[in-house]
Design brief:
heterodimer, A: 491 residues, alpha+beta, 8-stranded antiparallel sheet, 5-stranded antiparallel sheet, 15 helices, B: 416 residues, alpha/beta, 4-stranded parallel sheet, 11 strands, globular
């Protein structure tokens, strides 16, 4: 690739200030600086401001047959946007405006580069009676990619995955054409993907390999006046999960059900891994920390719901308490770390408690996170726990039950020291071993899969499905410039 | 060997439900003012999560980094700089003019560090941002040409404003009463002496009206901040040594400053960075005045009838932790209504003049100033008040008469 020629054409689109092939700029797009996945190579970084500029960039890329890798805001959380074949990283961070909020139909239309901070700040200021479902991701990460990659939000019980929060998309295809999917494609309203053919599915879960999403509409929800965040502790995950499964089917105004194991709780509190018990269960600490959030429109409804939740917990010989009461038992200066998680206390996610990624004080973290059947949560955990402890690492686990109990996420985390090649190697071994073991459970499908997982998916997929994926990819991206070497089709 | 702390200090902001992590268990207690080699293992803990871009403690979750918001590429934010520093130390990158320029295109306001949730980065990132500048100077890639020019003038004429040294005290009129043997010196500073003389006059008149025995050094030199902040540590230390020699020879025991930069240099950088423990008590004017207010030693006779907003200068705010004394003083002025900008105290938006930015990166400087002026206007205040003449001069220079820019000393004098 003749950088100079390409740079010149790109400068004509966005201006000199917003395109660069300087090594210092490239370096920060080579990989995600978090996971144990290998580095890639960014040749050119560019920051467009409009969908039209994105189109022009894609056309230049097609002309020179150069890969395009969309990023939002300089973050590639999970390595799926690492430029595996070089090329142009299109950083959408200048396209970060919330364009419209429709309070009647409860959605927000935003540009593709809008971060959680942008969205939350905008809603807090201008539409304080509404909220978005938010993730545990840092405030600098993107809303739209989170949705496109099936992110998990704290309204997951009523909304499902982040993809289900999407009402519509505007996308620049790999050909440079601009399309819209959903009601927005034939009207000014972005209330849903129904009843038209659901083209959004061509871009959800495809990890930027079929187009660059330049706009999206995301569902909002009203902030109801009554809310309780309830914590339930249990000695083991096996004892706690059945409770959550029953609650997930009970209605009761429940908007979010998650649990963490004690290992992850320790990480969130900012401890150094070396200074805490590898296996807190050995010390008799509860290993299951469940969080259930319920909301209501009236006080009577709220009381009735909380009572019902309490009664269900008692059926399992478990005693719930409100998060507020639970945290009063913490030293005052430690409450803040947990209370970040609870909107009920006036704050919200996203605030990445980065301590959970810095458990080994080496800034590295990767996970085997999957969607799976709710019946397999405890099994998934126990498999991951055994393998992690075998390698003398602390087990860290999180699960969220979603969409009325129809499915769930299960995720095992490993932290490591990015400066230590042996630790990186060990981490890769652990991740692979966990992956191989949990994928023996039918229905486990990893989200945001790195390349080696994509190959596994392909090997399990019906040949006709694989063919269809290839055909769609070819149609939308004939020159295979869109994030090549990643995503659903793999390398 | 690194000390480990068992201290836990996480301030939970009740109304916002957000925690500000100051210390967590097992946090490393590091020394400050060290070189890059010392901090290199901390750098890699950064995951470039982007939290450093956003003042998430405030409603509206506003952006907080002028360098980043102007430069836009990740390299201009703290996360980018952390990993570029790591890239350099781990031989992924080499020193280039561009790398140096990235690190100089920053006022080192440290708003970014306030947001970082990794305590070691929260506390010490400012150290390696400065260490990178020192390295750039050693590599011959710093300071920036414009900064080099004013630095040479500081050596020659003891000020960065291309002014003649002997004119430094021209602002002093016969109305200002000095006590020749006073142990308390009003250290005026270069910006106040040459560019914002109203501040100097106001400060001196305040001291006179409070019957404070003070004097102004007839041969006051630059404190060295413009040199130090651009990584020229050795030169800055020589200036400091000269100043301390002067203070000692004059028997100075106490210094009042009206410039935030001078305050920081004299109070913190001289003893802690340069190891020059002068033993002199240094107070910024608002601290001095707050003491007087608390002791009922000051009487305000005039009502100002004004709605104002206060801008926290970085060098007394985030760098030195002084947020409340100026506010307490302002609130005690009759007729003053103080309204806060959205980004205030630890999350104040930098005016864009410090760190050598104003001379070397005029577009960035102007961008930052305009952003702050707009924010001030949104409060409905009639005046934007600060207690740093550099901030003041910056606002005046970039202000199209949209809002009055005024120093705290000027308001206090009016109220007296």
């Amino acid at each position: 690739m003749n950088n100079n020629v390409v740079i010149h054409e790109l400068e004509n689109i966005v201006g000199e200030k917003y395109v660069s092939d300087e090594p210092e700029i490239q370096f920060l797009y080579h990989y995600d600086f978090i996971t144990a996945e290998p580095e890639g190579k960014c040749d050119i970084a560019i920051m467009p401001e409009t969908a039209e500029e994105v189109q022009a960039i894609v056309k230049v890329a097609n002309k020179h047959k150069i890969p395009i890798v969309p990023w939002v805001s300089g973050i590639n959380f999970g390595s799926i946007a690492t430029p595996r074949k070089g090329g142009i990283v299109v950083d959408l961070r200048r396209m970060n405006r919330v364009l419209e909020v429709n309070e009647d139909d409860m959605y927000a239309v935003m540009e593709g580069g809008t971060t959680w901070a942008d969205l939350k700040g905008y809603l807090d200021k201008h539409h304080p009676n509404f909220r978005a479902g938010v993730t545990f991701s840092p405030p600098g990460t993107g809303v739209v990619p989170s949705c496109l990659c099936y992110g998990m939000f704290d309204l997951g019980m009523i909304g499902g995955t982040g993809a289900e929060f999407l009402n519509g998309l505007e996308v620049v295809l790999g050909t440079g054409e601009l399309i819209r999917a959903g009601s927005c494609s034939i009207s000014k309203k972005w209330y849903g993907r129904q009843p038209l053919p659901d083209l959004a599915g061509l871009f959800i879960g495809w990890e930027g390999t079929t187009g660059v999403v330049t706009k999206a509409a995301v569902k909002l929800w009203p902030k109801l006046p009554y809310r309780a965040d309830i914590m339930v502790l249990a000695p083991t995950v096996d004892q706690g999960v059945p409770l959550l499964l029953k609650l997930s089917k009970a209605g009761l105004g429940i908007v979010d059900i998650i649990f963490l194991n004690m290992g992850w709780c320790q990480a969130i509190q900012g401890f150094d891994e070396k200074s805490v018990a590898k296996d807190p269960v050995e010390l008799g600490l509860p290993d299951f920390v469940g969080l259930v959030t319920t909301q209501a429109y009236t006080e009577n409804q709220h009381k009735a719901q909380c009572n019902a939740i309490n009664n269900i917990c008692n059926e399992f010989n478990l005693s719930p308490q409100t998060a507020e009461n639970f945290l009063k038992s913490f030293p005052e200066d430690m409450r803040g770390v947990f209370l970040d998680i609870f909107p009920g206390f006036g704050g919200y996610n996203p605030v990445q408690a980065w301590g959970c990624w810095n458990f080994t004080r080496g800034g590295g973290g990767e996970w085997i996170g999957s969607y799976c059947s709710t019946r397999d949560i405890a099994k998934y955990y126990n498999i991951a726990r055994e393998i992690t402890l075998k390698y003398d690492k602390p087990p860290q686990f999180y699960s969220r039950i979603m969409f009325g109990g129809h499915y769930c996420v299960a995720r095992a985390n490993i932290n490591f020291d990015k400066n230590d090649p042996e630790d990186i190697k060990k981490t890769r071994t652990i991740l692979k071993e966990i992956f191989d073991a949990v994928h023996k459970l039918d229905g486990v499908v990893m989200y945001k899969p790195p390349l080696w997982v994509v190959e596994h998916h392909k090997s399990k997929t019906l040949p006709a499905t694989t063919e269809l994926i290839k055909k769609i990819k070819k149609l939308l991206d004939p020159n295979n410039i869109m994030n090549p070497g990643q995503g659903i089709e793999g390398d | 060997m690194i000390d480990i702390s068992n201290k836990r200090e996480i301030k939970f902001l009740k109304e916002k439900g957000i925690s500000r992590i100051m210390h967590v268990p097992d946090q490393q207690i590091l020394d400050r003012h060290k070189g890059l080699e010392y901090y290199k293992d901390i750098l890699y803990q950064c995951g470039k999560c982007g939290t450093c871009r956003t003042a998430y403690h405030e409603d509206g979750w506003p952006r907080i980094c002028p360098s980043g918001e102007f430069g836009k590429f990740e390299a201009y934010y703290l996360g980018g700089k952390n990993l570029l520093t790591w890239g350099l130390k781990s031989d992924h990158l080499k020193w280039t003019e561009n790398l140096a320029k990235i690190f100089y295109q920053c006022s080192v306001c440290l708003a970014c560090t306030q947001q970082c949730q990794i305590p070691e980065i929260h506390h010490y990132a400012g150290e390696w941002l400065m260490a990178m500048r020192e390295e750039a100077v050693k590599q011959g890639l710093g300071p920036m040409p414009e900064q080099k020019k004013y630095s040479e003038h500081v050596i020659k004429e003891f000020n960065p404003y291309m002014e003649i040294h002997k004119n430094r005290t021209n602002w002093i009129s016969s109305n200002i009463k000095q006590a020749p043997d006073a142990k308390l010196v009003y250290f005026v500073g270069c910006t106040t002496s040459y560019r914002e003389q109203n501040v100097a006059i106001a400060t001196a008149e305040i001291l006179n009206s409070l019957n404070v025995d003070f004097r102004i050094l007839t041969d006051e030199h630059c404190c060295g901040s413009p040199i130090y902040m651009t990584g020229q540590t050795d030169k800055a230390k020589e200036i400091a040594e000269g100043n301390i020699e002067l203070f000692r020879s004059q028997g100075i025991e106490k210094i009042i400053t009206s410039c935030a930069g001078c305050y920081r240099m004299l109070k913190e950088t001289y003893p802690k960075k340069f190891g020059l423990d002068h033993g002199i008590e240094v107070l910024h004017l608002p601290e001095f005045l707050q003491e007087k207010v608390n002791n009922n030693e000051i009487k305000f006779n005039n009502s100002l009838d004004m709605k104002i907003t206060y801008h926290d200068p970085c060098h007394i705010g985030r760098h030195m932790g002084i947020y409340e004394p100026p506010r307490e003083v302002l609130k005690n002025l009759p007729g003053i209504e103080l309204v806060e900008m959205e980004r205030n105290r630890q999350n104040a938006w930098c005016c864009g003049s410090g760190g050598g930015v104003r001379s070397a990166f005029k577009d960035l400087s102007s961008f930052a100033a305009h952003e702050r002026i707009e924010e001030a206007k949104e409060t409905g205040a009639r005046a934007l008040v600060s207690c740093c003449p550099f901030c003041l001069n910056q606002f005046k220079t970039n202000n199209k008469d949209e809002i009055q820019a005024i120093d705290l000393s000027e308001l206090v004098r009016k109220a007296l």
